[in-house]
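Quick note —
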Amino acid sequence: MPTRRGPAPSPNARRRNKDHALGEHELTPAAGEGRALPKSLGIVTGGAKRFWKTWSTAPQTQHWLETDWAELELTTKIVDAFYQGDVRLAGEIRQRVGRWGATTEDRARLRMDFDQQAQDEAAQAAKEAATADMDAELFRMLSEN
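Predicted structure written out below.
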């Protein structure tokens, strides 16, 4: 069972701010390729390249300013050093990605909410694409005989 931060809520507590609170974000899945990894960073490890691709296409990036992208560049350099063997950097990486909403707990704390309808549409489109690919593959396999 996940641990909670702070005291347990009162069973008969009344929320006065049930409407969307200041700072709450509604996120939709990011579309497209995201930003390209700057060559000037000199990233050499595949893990750091995957880290950049994952974060540059994450739904959180739709609200990012240039300062946030600069922070991603710095963090990617740290991730690159981590993958080169400096495991002491793991805690620093976790702190940085936690501020962006890396885990379910981080997103709850940051009051991030994903648009469920957009997620469902994206999942349906992916399922249809996979089905079309499977149909084409099956047709190719049956045509070979």
